[in-house]
């Protein structure tokens, strides 16, 4: 990371600070006892979360476009994976006992243990194996399985891009 240009540092630092805002807003929302205050902080956290996603899907994605099709496709796949999982956090919060109370504290706790496993451990596994596939001429069986998962995620990303391009043409 020390080789990044100053503009890259600025983007990365601003995304990290915005992520801190997301976490702090979620904490304040969860600790608030007045419902409107709770939802106020939740909405602020979601807005900050959308800013983070915008930074990941726009400027960072644009950087990968200049570094080759293979890396760019890999970035799209891995970004789709963690975007889907990151969206689970605010969704579970609002549906759980802190929000609308659709499910109880046990389910809420279980989901908040399960989501980080897939969003952190799963992401790391897919990321490392995917990057290794980019630089290796002879992938292992595990690498091939990871490639299949990333290919599936790419089909999700590509279908979304096709819908957007059709909507923009209309």
Structure description:
- The chain has helices at 6-31, 35-57, 59-65, 69-95, 105-135, 141-169.
- With 170 residues, it is mainly α.
- It folds into two domains: 1-66; 69-170, Rhopdopsin 7-helix transmembrane proteins (Up-down Bundle), CATH 1.20.1070.
- The longest helix has 31 residues, at 105-135.
- It is globular and about 55 Å long.
Describe the structure using short key phrases.
Rhopdopsin 7-helix transmembrane proteins, 2 domains, mainly alpha
Q: Look at the structure and name the CATH superfamily of the largest domain.
A: Rhodopsin 7-helix transmembrane proteins
How far the N terminus sits from the C terminus, by CA atoms, comes to: 41 Å
| Name of the CATH class of the largest domain | Mainly Alpha
How many distinct beta strands?
0
Fold blueprint:
Blueprint: H1 6-31, H2 35-57, H3 59-65, H4 69-95, H5 105-135, H6 141-169
Helix pairs in contact: 1-2, 2-3, 2-4, 4-5, 4-6, 5-6
């Amino acid at each position: 990371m020390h080789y990044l240009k100053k503009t890259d540092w600025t983007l990365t630092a601003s995304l990290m600070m915005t992520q801190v805002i997301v976490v702090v807003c979620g904490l304040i929302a969860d600790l608030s006892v007045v419902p409107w205050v709770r939802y106020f902080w939740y909405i602020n956290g979601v807005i900050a979360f959308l800013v983070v996603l915008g930074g990941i899907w726009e400027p960072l994605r644009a950087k990968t476009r200049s570094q080759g099709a293979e890396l760019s496709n890999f970035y799209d796949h891995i970004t789709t994976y963690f975007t889907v999982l990151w969206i689970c956090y605010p969704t579970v919060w609002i549906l759980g006992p802190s929000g609308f109370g659709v499910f109880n504290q046990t389910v809420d706790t279980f989901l908040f243990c399960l989501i980080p496993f897939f969003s952190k451990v799963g992401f790391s596994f897919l990321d490392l194996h995917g990057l290794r596939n980019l630089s290796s001429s002879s992938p292992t069986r595990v690498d091939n399985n990871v490639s299949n998962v990333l290919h599936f995620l790419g089909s999700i990303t590509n279908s979304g891009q096709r819908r957007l391009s059709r909507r923009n043409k209309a």
